[in-house]
Design a protein that fits this description.
The protein is α+β, with helices and mostly antiparallel strands. The protein contains one helix and seven strands; from the N terminus they run H-E-E-E-E-E-E-E. A five-stranded antiparallel β-sheet has the order 4-3-5-6-7. It has a two-stranded antiparallel ribbon with strand order 1-2.
Length: 158
Amino acid sequence: MPSKESVRGFTLFETLIATGILLTTFAGVAQLFVLGAQLTRQSVRSGAALVAAQDKLESLRGVPFGYSGDGTAITDAALRISPPTSLEQDVDCCVDWVDAGGVSREDRAQAAFVRRWRVSEIGAGVPDAISIEVCVFTAPAGSHPADVCLATIRSRQP
């Protein structure tokens, strides 16, 4: 004759405990998926901002800044000295708007990023050297910090 307590199956209490553990585990895993998706989106956006900054820096590094055959200094108009505030605010000579694909846009509404740059002399004693700084901000560029800033130095070569 079998006893009143059966050894087959689980009690209701054991089932509730197991279900609680599973639900807690699934909730943690779901949070990890959400966090992973957010970090992936942020990484893609940061990568696009970096590419936009690199593109502008390389285009400014590629324009003429040297000497002609007769020794006259040659400086492309894109490398004229910028206002000191050109990285903090939109200055016509030193700003453009870039979409998420890295294409420069005239329409600010289509822009994912605001790209600003500044060209400045290294010092009065070094007239043949300039620094170039490029910062990219998430549009609209308000008071938040830049997503990416890059800088380089160019010296006038004969």
